[in-house]
Amino acid sequence: MSDETRLDDDDVTLAERPEEAARPDDRLDDERLDEENTLKPDYVRRVRDALEAGENGTVYDLVEPLHPADIADLFELCEADERALLAVAISDLMGSEVIAELNDYVREDMMEALDPEAVATIVEQLETDDAVQLIEDLDEEDQQAVLAEVEAEDRVAIESALSYPEETAGRLMSRNFVAVPEHLTVGQLIDFLRAEDDLPTEFYEVFIVDASHHPVGTCALGWVLTTPRNIALSDVMKRDQTLIPVMLDQEEVALMFQKYNLISAAVIDEDGRLVGQMTVDDIVHIISEEAGEDTLLLSGAGDGDINEPIRDAYSARVRWLVANLGTALVASLIIAAFGAAIEKLVALAILMPIVASIGGNAGTQTMAVTVRAIATNQLTRSNTGRILWRETRVAFLNGITISVLIGAATAAIFTPTLGAVIAAAMIINLLTAGLAGVLVPVAFERLDQDPAVASSVFVTMITDSMGFFAFLGLAVASGLAN
Amino acid sequence: MSDETRLDDDDVTLAERPEEAARPDDRLDDERLDEENTLKPDYVRRVRDALEAGENGTVYDLVEPLHPADIADLFELCEADERALLAVAISDLMGSEVIAELNDYVREDMMEALDPEAVATIVEQLETDDAVQLIEDLDEEDQQAVLAEVEAEDRVAIESALSYPEETAGRLMSRNFVAVPEHLTVGQLIDFLRAEDDLPTEFYEVFIVDASHHPVGTCALGWVLTTPRNIALSDVMKRDQTLIPVMLDQEEVALMFQKYNLISAAVIDEDGRLVGQMTVDDIVHIISEEAGEDTLLLSGAGDGDINEPIRDAYSARVRWLVANLGTALVASLIIAAFGAAIEKLVALAILMPIVASIGGNAGTQTMAVTVRAIATNQLTRSNTGRILWRETRVAFLNGITISVLIGAATAAIFTPTLGAVIAAAMIINLLTAGLAGVLVPVAFERLDQDPAVASSVFVTMITDSMGFFAFLGLAVASGLAN
Predict the structure, then answer these.
(1) What's the DSSP call for residue A238?
(2) Theoretical Cys-Cys bridge with B414: which of A130, A213, B418, B447, CB 3.0 to 4.6 Å?
(3) Phi, psi (degrees; rounded to nearest 5) at A207
(4) Do domains A14-172 and A310-477 have the same CATH topology?
(5) Cβ of B292 and A288 within 8 Å?
(6) Binary contact (A353, B353; C-beta < 8 A)
(7) ipTM, 2 decimals?
(8) How many CB pairs under 8 A join A and B?
(9) What would the pLDDT profile of B9-23 be if each residue is shown by its tens digit?
(10) A179-299, superfamily in CATH?
(11) pLDDT digits (tens, 9 = 90+) for A208-267
């Protein structure tokens, strides 16, 4: 859209000078984007001021030169109530690319505000996979209302996608791809492509199929272009290809794209027939989401999206805090059992949080490493024992270092015996933390649970309890609080 | 390599049946890979047993059918001392793809074990960007020794890449790309590509440049193939393209690829001249690394790679534990200031870890959300205020919920006054945690520090100290410990 020339406007903006649109610094160094390629606060402020003042013409002129992905960002940076105003002001810039790039929560909000006909108009502009993403957010009733407005061909494709579970290849794949029989030559393929109208907007390889539509090979467009016309496709195609089963989870799909450096791949049904393709540009978002979500899951922040409604954020997080209250109570019970000792030696109360705190942190470190290694398929049954042994040694080294520091300081400030007690408790707790940090996520993985979701609660409970128990128990055993 | 037929071998393996290599379930359902596409423990065990028994022929036959990425995985799953044995047993399968897919630490280990000539032989097989990744691991002296063995043309390209800082586009880009003048027609471009020998193995678009080698547009191979031969490139090319400055950090490059859904992009030097290209298959690894590394950095686990040498893992993690010891001491000082109160009322010692623990967790939740939003460019100066207000409200809701629970329980078990004290302390600490969870990472970001690295220490210190201070202080103020 920034290629268009708008002659009815006096302001000269970048988009109105198409002959300069390729100036190297266009997108990187202009008045709208900063060096990190995000919209400048000044610019966002001007758009919002114009929105509030009801100056829709100004808003349009400000927004029009933006790339669709930046328009999507602009929506996210506006307050919820400004988004509807913005959509009205720039309605003819609200193309499919903007919708596809919007944050899920922001898009869901906006879709719910629109009537089914308006949603249907947007859906028809979108590629099937983007349309599915938009429709799956709606509730059943709205879905039906929108689908009723959509053309039959699109509707069939969308309903087919929705028939697969969320986050599977069948839901995410594109049903528009190029598949040709293997007897074609390179020249015949090029002629076919030139004659064909309904090609995907983006494709990077041609799939070669046999008579029953089973994929037998794949041919990158680069090879097609660099091979003489008279060569048979079967002589240039690569036979060894990565095929994605239609029911495969998106996380596994993403790992396959990463592992085998794929740009696109064929999706096959249960009978091995080619039914769709996945391209890396769709996978990139999944890779980022899946890799980033562990950070949020481990902290117990749920989806952790800053656009998530407050009630959802609250309910995701409070659940974990309540679970944590439970584990904290276990720790308190252990402290309570040593109440008499604490009354006699208040130094125990002063020092005990240190043991638990360092143990908790060491456990979190090991757990983060383990969860990440499981997520990237680096930690498997083949090497679990080795990793456990590795983490034990790291924990032992950490334990020695921290014990010496805290033991010496405690001995100097309080008594040498208390120093020895806290040093011993620290080594015990760091070894416990190392073992728990590996074993808890591995156990959840073997039980087919996401190790990122539930591990923190357990690891924290183990390190907190063990920290207090080891320290207070050793103190009593050594006769410190008699 | 799996297309080759080895006639000197009686065992029939998949790779020896090229005509069947496209059987849909080849890669997904065979005796070597499980349903998550990782090597089965049984299979790894057999390879390792054969290695230990010195049966190199058996090892070769077992490994030969694997995809290079799976051979790389196999190396990682073996113990360090088995890796050298494996490399010897399958030396002619150790192609560039295997080397490129190896984990950094494993590759570094193996490179250090080889002499410069052997490394140089591998380097010459690799694309420049993979070769650079391999060489940058070596120390200066070894680098020079390897480069001396490499052919002049490759050496120049590698030295040029090494002249850019690590993790910039200049270091990572491929110097092999297709750039043509804009006066060509589609037919002339195809003829040029067919005649040209030295084309990149992977390319997805052709860059159109002017006489001074400035990029003026880009043409996806799909468009070239579907456009009649007599059309001028300048009529089919896209003028609006995303250009990557050669000094841009890889994290920003990855965000640009995600934001604009790029498959490849031109890299330009300071004068705007085309100097290289980046393709999404290189970026996918960076996206995954950058998104995953926050999990590890927030936990203070450094690189957190399970292949990292133990001494490196120890030094990365102990640093953070020592920092944490410092923050725990601050908390202890606060407790010590209330020593007299604790001696009078030991219930304070029993309950005080609860306030700090829940506060710490709430702070971690908010911090994880904030760090992730900063990393994905969703949190900018334009919406910091809104996010702060949003997190304050979530913190308040969490605070009310947790306060009611712990307040009621404490009132029942101990006294109503102590219940009120802990409830009030909990709300104060959760609000503090919410504010610190946003403000600390944002402050580090504005100071150009990575918020994932340093935020945890500060947020933990703030929530621990505030938790103990609020609870013990309110207890004293309410006359509980007089």
Answers:
(1) B
(2) B418
(3) -90, 135
(4) no
(5) no
(6) yes
(7) 0.83
(8) 427
(9) 333 232 333 333 333
(10) CBS-domain (3.10.580.10)
(11) 999 999 999 999 998 888 888 999 999 989 988 899 999 999 989 998 998 888 889 999
